[in-house]
Design brief:
This protein is of the alpha+beta class. Helix content is 34%, strand content 26%. The strands form 10 sheets. Strands 16, 17, 18, 20, 21, 22, 24 and 25 form an 8-stranded antiparallel beta sheet that branches.
Length: 868
């Protein structure tokens, strides 16, 4: 084992034990390496704060080629690269470059790749924020090229014919470049318009001018490069979860077994009855770099709720139709479910090919093709197969491979979300949950939050497609072994998530669609079954104009149990009784306010994120919306929040992590300015209204701190009021001069009265009765601020010379007597208890005296004695 020193950049870290981390590094001399940093989590770690993602420095590794995990001896940081975190676009680009290095670079020396990677980080750090997306896309393409995966952009990847690109070009992520019109066919995987093709050429040419990409074009290029990279990382499996659908006894389970070799009927009852009851899962290898999972669902009408739990999250539907029977009732219901869930692609499979002749097969093929023409799903031509003889299976596999390059990749940069469809316990691993990862990633050692249980737990281990993995990624069948939760505490329908904004909800505002075959309209208070993710929850329909079969409308769903939802989620609705699929919809808002009604909110299915955000912020009024909650509320990527805020327009004010409607802010500042003005009228001698009192006057009870700060700042900026008195008092601009002009003669009269009273201090009420023409309380408060008088208690003010005289007499008496009771002090001062007790309590509060039983002693002498 040799100690090797080499330049390196931290790509990824995750917790390994209580004191150690696993660190993934890009190194110049050794390629990408994994190392354990022992003791890094201890308070006095020798690594300090150096092991942050994207930190650059020189690493010392105890390296042995035969080991997958090296040992880190030291990391001398040269650049923490915190400039990459200045804005979200810059950091997202850097994170994407790190992902490319992590997944594509070899664990062997490749200095050119390391140099390209560090040059890319330098370029991002110095880029204009408006160019960050284009700079990141360029360097990802260039880095991919250095790693040996450069796309072919000038000639067809199949036959080498030059591509002009004047009318746009076809681009295949699976084949690694552009296709000529002949090879592309009538439905190419991806069609690049002429301007997009020119931009792509420029992005791949470091000598060309950087193309200017607006938000939509930048997003399109990000998707293209992400699909290309993921495919050539062996993750392109945008085609990752394949789900079966179809009538009972049409051969779904037999087809899955023929494709995968796995019998997905796990239960003894399933084998005995010869039908599938619950979900079954099997890995489906489709090539060297392409791995899928098959979810086998039950076809019996009595188990459709199980079918729905399995259909959620699938990428491609296999609609299995027996060639000897054709389309049947459950075929239609499963087809409707697949459409309602928004599955984009599918392959009709005509099973039991061996039971029919060619003429009959042709009739069934025609029937199925005609039926699917009107479907929202883009279906491939039907493929006839026989699970018994194996006929057609190779053609089906080829069709699935072809689909892999034509599906959008699920974003890894999203929040992690795993709807749970199975929960069980494994000895040595603890509680295990499984499901299809909808979005985002999570690694071993990281935490996930379980909802609706609302508990944070740690991920002990991960399996993806049945194989051990360090990280769960979207679009995969995933199993998480969890620490901190018991098997009995979870069930199908729970969700594992990471990141902010998630919460269970019992109210949804939705766009509802009723199937044409529904028996009756959907009216107010109709009880239904809502299937979202893997959850099934009973609900009542509210705030709805009756939706007739075949129509759509808005509604509010009042759920009988909480579930987890996100803006844009699709769901299926089944009738309460008899139980049958009647429709579905899309979540418009998972956390709607009580008012206004859903139909009055101005929400729509295809509404741009900026427009919807503006409406939600406007509804929230002074409560505002936290920026961190926007991705879940709107159903957008965290990286798209800044663009949504910008597109929301000037009506939305952003302050830190808070978004508030300008209209609500302006109206409340005007109202508070009126409150301050009214206070001045009723308290003309006060310096102003206390900041605490003004906060209590805000229209929203218990207004959040950030909102209050924004109100004060906005009010001062608009000159509605000003803050004075060291930040404790709010007043109208210029109010001080008005106050002083009223205080002169009246104040002098009160001060003379208090001087004459000496120690026989009158109450405020007595003074008000005596000086009925004056506003005595605010005048006394003003005099106290000016220093002419001092407040003795809530009801009395005294002249300062009189109080100093009383203090001297009291201290002299106590020095003589040591301690004195009120009776003794009464005899010495000649004061009655009415006047003496308030003065003694004033002396206690000022720290002049201290109670000792029923007597007083000098506080300073007591303190000195006690401390010696």
């Amino acid at each position: 084992m040799a100690l090797v020193s080499t330049p390196a950049v931290i790509l990824q870290t995750f917790r390994y034990s209580e004191t150690s981390k696993i660190v993934r590094l890009a190194t110049r001399e050794l390629g990408v390496q994994s190392a354990i940093a022992k003791g890094v989590l201890r308070p006095r770690s020798p690594f300090g704060a150096a092991l942050e993602t994207l930190s650059e420095g020189v690493v010392q590794l105890y390296h042995k080629e035969t080991r997958d995990l090296q040992t880190m001896a030291a990391f001398d940081v040269t650049d923490l690269r915190r400039d990459l975190a200045r804005d979200l676009g810059r950091f997202a680009g850097a994170a994407a470059l790190a992902e490319v290095m992590l997944k594509m670079a070899p664990a062997a020396p490749l200095p050119a790749a390391y140099d390209a990677f560090t040059h890319a980080l330098d370029a991002l750090a110095t880029a204009d924020p408006r160019d960050a997306d284009a700079v990141a896309a360029r360097w990802i393409w260039l880095l991919v090229g250095v790693l040996g995966f450069a796309p072919e952009l000038d000639a067809c990847v199949r036959d080498g014919i030059a591509v002009a690109g004047n009318g746009g070009v076809a681009f295949s992520t699976a084949e690694g470049g552009v296709l000529c019109p002949k090879c592309a066919g009538p439905q190419p995987p991806t069609r690049l318009p002429p301007d997009a093709y020119r931009d792509l050429l420029a992005l791949n040419d470091v000598g060309a001018a950087l193309p200017q990409l607006d938000a939509s074009h930048a997003a399109a290029h990000r998707r293209l490069v992400a699909r290309f990279v993921r495919h050539h990382m062996g993750e392109s499996g945008p085609l990752s979860v394949v789900g079966t659908a179809g009538h009972i006894d049409h051969g779904k389970t037999a087809l899955v077994k023929a494709l995968t070799g796995v019998d997905t009927d796990r239960w003894e009852e399933e084998k005995r009855r010869g039908i599938t009851i619950d979900l079954g899962f099997a890995p489906l290898p489709l090539g060297v770099d392409l791995q899928a999972s098959v979810v086998d669902v039950p076809g019996h009408e009595g188990f459709v709720k199980n079918m729905l739990a399995g259909a959620t999250g699938i990428d491609v539907a296999l609609l299995v139709i027996a060639a000897d029977e054709g389309v049947m009732p459950q075929t239609e219901e499963h087809l409707a479910i697949v459409e309602l869930l928004g599955v984009r692609r599918g392959v009709p499979v005509l099973s039991k090919r061996d039971l029919v002749d060619d003429e009959w097969l042709a009739l069934v093929r025609t029937e199925v093709t005609e039926r699917l023409k009107s479907s929202r799903v883009r279906w491939d031509p039907p493929i006839a197969v026989s699970a018994l003889t194996g006929a057609g299976l190779d053609e089906l596999r080829a069709a699935l491979v072809h689909l892999a390059g034509d599906l959008p990749a699920r974003p890894t940069e999203d929040l992690f979300r795993l709807p749970i469809d199975r929960v069980f316990a494994v000895a040595g691993a603890g509680t295990v949950v499984t499901g299809s990862t909808w979005s985002g990633t999570v690694a071993i050692g990281e935490s996930v939050r379980l909802l609706p249980l609302d508990r944070e737990v740690r991920v002990r281990s991960i399996e993806v497609h049945g194989e051990t993995a360090e990280r769960a990624v979207p679009g995969r069948r995933t199993a998480l072994a969890l620490v901190g939760v018991g098997k009995e505490e979870l069930a199908r329908g729970a969700v594992a998530v990471t990141g902010p904004g998630w919460a269970s909800t019992t109210t949804l505002d939705v766009a509802l669609e009723l199937l044409p075959g529904a028996r009756k309209p959907l009216a107010v208070r109709t009880r239904i079954r809502v299937h979202l993710g893997t959850a099934e929850v009973l609900a009542r329909v509210a705030q709805v104009r009756a939706i007739a079969p075949g129509e759509t409308g808005f509604a509010r769903l009042l759920l009988e149990r909480p579930l987890v939802a996100r803006g844009g989620d699709r769901f299926v609705v089944r009738s309460f009784s008899p139980v049958t699929t009647i429709g579905g919809g899309i979540v418009l808002d998972p956390f709607p306010p009580k008012r206004p009604r859903v139909a009055e909110r101005g929400l729509a299915v295809q509404q741009p994120a900026g427009e919807r955000l503006a409406r939600l912020v406007e509804e929230a009024g002074l409560r505002g919306i936290m920026v961190r909650d926007v991705p879940v509320r709107l159903g957008i990527l965290p990286g798209g929040v800044s663009d949504a805020v910008e597109r929301a327009g000037k009506g939305v004010i952003a302050s830190g992590d808070l978004l508030v409607a300008r209209r609500a802010l302006t109206a409340e500042v005007e109202r508070l300015a009126a409150v301050v003005g009214a206070y001045h009228q009723t308290h003309p001698l006060d310096a102003g209204l206390s900041l605490q009192a003004l906060r209590a006057a805000v229209a929203v009870p218990d207004v959040a701190g950030p909102v209050w700060d924004l109100l004060v700042d906005y009010g001062v900026k608009k000159q509605a009021f000003e803050v004075s008195g060291g930040g404790a008092v709010v007043r109208r601009p210029g109010w001080k001069a008005t106050l002083e002009s009223h205080a002169g003669d009246s104040g002098a009269r009160l001060v003379r009265r208090l001087v004459e009273a000496r120690w026989q201090v009158p109450t405020v009420a007595e003074l008000q009765h005596e000086f009925a023409e004056l506003a005595v309380p605010p005048l006394l408060a003003h005099l106290a601020r000016e220093g002419g008088v001092e407040q003795v208690d809530q009801e009395r003010y005294a002249s300062k010379p009189a109080l100093e005289e009383f203090r001297g007499a009291l201290e002299a008496t106590l020095r003589e007597l040591g301690r004195a009771t009120p009776a003794q002090l009464r005899d010495r001062t000649g004061l009655t208890r009415k006047y003496l007790i308030p003065l003694l309590e004033w002396a206690d509060r000022r720290g002049i005296t201290k109670r000792d039983g029923d007597a007083r002693v000098l506080a300073r002498l007591t303190g000195a004695a006690g401390g010696s």
